[in-house]
């Protein structure tokens, strides 16, 4: 990657600027964003009709919902108003307005809270940031369950075509999942252009099938009235409360609306939901409800039974394709969350491959990819049906939504100064609804809901342990390195004596307050110093991208004639740290009037060998967990885009 050329007075610069985009061009761009949002954002929530209703009325459920007219009306009404309140009003109407430089999702809320807490010094903000990390950990559990339940539910449609093919469900599911994860290293750019059109066909099919079902029993339209939901919830609370745990399945993927805002923008995502996704989902759920009213035997496979017999094979193929897209979306989301957590210091530095030159969000994280694949396959073999997996699914979804709601309310008060009466009234009601869903889902803990909690607790423990261990190592490393300015003063006095060698040496360190261990080793052991010495530290800012004008900051360390400078390079958490390219932004007047000679510059890295010590910095088991986690750290030279043939690594030992 080369540096951008500087702007000069060229012939091209004297030409008039190009005209802005025409109205047709702007319309085309908006349409492309809307279609893209349909393909990437709504895959998860868009495939819920395949399994949601049959799960709610599943007779094998530990808390079954009897199939009768009142319950069908009540459930359909609950689904409609849940989608309206949680997705339309909360996520589309409010949450998507809380963005971090255009980025959304729970990690964006965490960075906003950390920034607010830093300026205000509030301990509550730090506690909420930790809660947000647990929400991100739950999302990783969601990323494991979604591909398993989505693909399984689609392949199970085989039973509606020929019950004798049931034995092929698990093998076919495994093949699809393995191919899905094997393809991740190639990136989504190749098939990304097809996601939108396929999902348009999918949502069109949902609407058409739903209208066909409604035509059989138009009375189902009465379920739009909130009175049916209220009567069901309060008139049959002993049944309705347990039904809420399955109703959660109808708004799985709601977090994707918020998390993918940085890719498509708030308006395209909102318009796609309001004008296509929401109407299609509602029509399909009502069509299935009408079908169940016609014959309760239609509960199993109610989605596929909406289609005439001749259309079920094409519908099965379309459903399988849609579930793959849904799985792709949540896998990409897991890559994004893991990458951002790494950049913010909650996970080790991971090897990340950017799979698109045009879209920064399209990344591939090998370690996370293979971990997810093994986990998803394990879930398929362990649960063997979408109905069994559904018991576990809701907990991860509603747990994340409850946490997002709490963080959003904190931001609404702290950042926007929302009046207390509005916060307590509207926010309190919303939180009460979400907590009720969470309580209902907790009744499934012994039936499988323990799984996402276990995954979440495990991921959370790893992340907070890494954060704590990183603090311990950084403190010990800073003590060993000593003050940078003091070390430069000694260099100026010739302590220790060192011969000057031509060229530029770049020493990566932790900051401008301490001398990198590699720099000390070069002078104290090799007795050599470079004609140009650059001490460089990389900072990851809590924003997606840093402008080029703010990329580098140069400090001459008080001795502008000593050929030693400190350079701070800043990257956003969504950027690939390219250190050589960033160094080219250092202007000659910032480095003693001489341009940095980077063509043959030598880069020095300090690597740490960790050992469990006796100091009470952490519990012993956490020390070993921290050391074990450190083994997945990616190669620093590759991470910072350093040239392999000009990179030297200096090692040392530190006890935690």
Descriptive key words:
9% strand; 8 strands; single chain; 2 domains; alpha/beta; 656 residues; disordered N terminus; Amino acid/polyamine transporter I; six-stranded mixed beta sheet; two-stranded antiparallel ribbon
- Average pLDDT works out at 83
CATH topology of the largest domain: Amino acid/polyamine transporter I
Instruction: Name the structural class.
Output: alpha/beta
The end-to-end span amounts to 38 Å
For the largest beta-sheet, the strand count, sense and barrel status come to: 6 strands, mixed
Task: Please indicate the percent range of residues in DSSP E strands (runs of 2 or more).
Answer: 5-15%
Poorly predicted runs of 5 or more residues: 1-21
Which descriptor suits the 3D outline?
elongated
Radius of gyration computed on alpha carbons:
28 Å
CATH top level assignment of the largest domain: Mainly Alpha
How many structural units, i.e. domains?
Answer: 2
Proportion in helices: 55-70%
Second CATH tier, the architecture of the largest domain: Up-down Bundle
InterPro entries: K+_transporter, K_trans_C, K_trans_N, Kup
Pfam families: K_trans, K_trans_C
Domain K+ potassium transporter C-terminal: 502-655
Transmembrane segments: 31-52, 72-94, 124-145, 165-183, 195-214, 234-259, 271-293, 313-338, 359-383, 389-412, 419-439, 445-466
């Amino acid at each position: 990657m080369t540096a951008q050329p500087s702007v000069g007075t060229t012939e091209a610069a004297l030409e008039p600027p190009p005209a802005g985009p025409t109205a047709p061009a702007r319309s085309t761009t908006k349409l492309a964003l809307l279609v893209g949002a349909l393909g990437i954002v709504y895959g998860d929530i868009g495939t819920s009709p395949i399994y949601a209703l049959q799960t709610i009325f599943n007779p094998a459920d530990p808390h079954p919902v009897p199939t009768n007219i009142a319950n069908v009306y009540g459930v359909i009404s609950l689904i409609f108003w849940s989608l309206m309140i949680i997705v339309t009003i909360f996520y589309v109407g409010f949450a998507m307005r809380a963005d971090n430089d255009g980025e959304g999702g729970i990690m964006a809320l965490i960075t906003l809270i950390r920034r607010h807490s830093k300026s205000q010094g509030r301990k509550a903000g730090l506690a909420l940031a930790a809660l947000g990390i647990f929400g991100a950990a739950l999302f990783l559990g969601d990323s494991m369950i979604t591909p398993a339940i989505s693909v399984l539910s689609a392949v199970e449609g085989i039973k509606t075509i020929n019950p004798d093919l049931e034995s092929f469900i698990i093998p076919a599911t495994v093949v699809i999942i393995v191919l899905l994860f094997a393809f991740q290293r190639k990136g989504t750019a190749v098939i990304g252009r097809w996601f939108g059109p396929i999902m348009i066909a999918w949502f069109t099919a949902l609407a058409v099938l739903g209208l066909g079902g409604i035509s059989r029993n138009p009375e189902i339209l009465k379920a739009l009235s909130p009175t049916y939901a209220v009567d069901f919830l309060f008139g049959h609370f002993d049944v309705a409360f347990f039904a809420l745990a399955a109703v959660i399945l109808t708004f799985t993927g709601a977090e994707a609306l918020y998390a993918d805002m940085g890719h498509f923008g708030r308006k395209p995502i909102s318009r796609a939901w309001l004008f296509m996704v929401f109407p299609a989902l509602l029509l399909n759920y009502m069509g299935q409800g009408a079908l169940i009213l016609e014959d309760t035997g239609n509960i199993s496979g109610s989605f596929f039974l909406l289609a005439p017999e001749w259309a079920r094979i094409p519908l099965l193929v379309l459903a399988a394709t849609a579930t793959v897209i849904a799985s792709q979306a949540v896998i990409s989301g897991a890559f994004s969350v893991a990458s951002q957590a790494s950049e913010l210091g909650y996970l080790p530095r991971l090897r990340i491959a950017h799979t698109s030159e045009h879209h920064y969000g399209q990344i591939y994280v090998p370690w996370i990819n293979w971990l997810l694949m093994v986990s998803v396959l394990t879930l398929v073999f362990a649960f063997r049906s979408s109905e069994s997996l559904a018991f576990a699914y809701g907990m991860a979804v509603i747990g994340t939504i409850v946490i997002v709601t709490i963080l959003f309310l904190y931001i609404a008060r702290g950042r926007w100064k929302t009046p207390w009466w509005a916060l307590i009234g509207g926010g309190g009601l919303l939180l009460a609804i979400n907590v009720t869903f969470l309580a209902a889902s907790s009744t499934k803990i012994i039936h499988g809901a323990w799984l996402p909690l276990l995954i979440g607790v495990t991921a959370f423990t790893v992340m907070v342990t890494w954060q704590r261990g990183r603090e311990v190592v950084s403190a010990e490393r800073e003590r060993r390195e000593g003050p940078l300015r003091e070390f430069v003063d000694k260099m100026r006095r010739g302590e220790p004596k060192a011969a000057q060698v031509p060229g530029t040496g770049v020493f990566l360190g932790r900051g401008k307050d301490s001398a990198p261990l590699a720099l000390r080793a070069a002078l104290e052991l090799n007795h050599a110093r470079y004609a140009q010495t650059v001490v460089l530290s990389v900072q990851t800012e809590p924003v997606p991208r840093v402008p080029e004008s703010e990329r580098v900051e140069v400090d001459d360390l008080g001795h502008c004639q000593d050929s030693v400078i400190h350079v701070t390079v800043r990257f956003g958490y969504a950027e690939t740290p390219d250190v050589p390219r960033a160094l080219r932004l250092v202007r000659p007047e910032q480095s003693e009037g001489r341009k940095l000679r980077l063509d043959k510059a030598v880069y020095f890295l300090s690597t740490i060998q960790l050992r469990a010590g006796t100091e009470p910095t952490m519990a012993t088991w956490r020390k070993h967990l921290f050391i074990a986690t450190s083994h997945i750290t990616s190669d620093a030279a590759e991470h910072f885009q350093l040239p392999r043939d000009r990179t030297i690594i200096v090692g040392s030992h530190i006890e935690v």
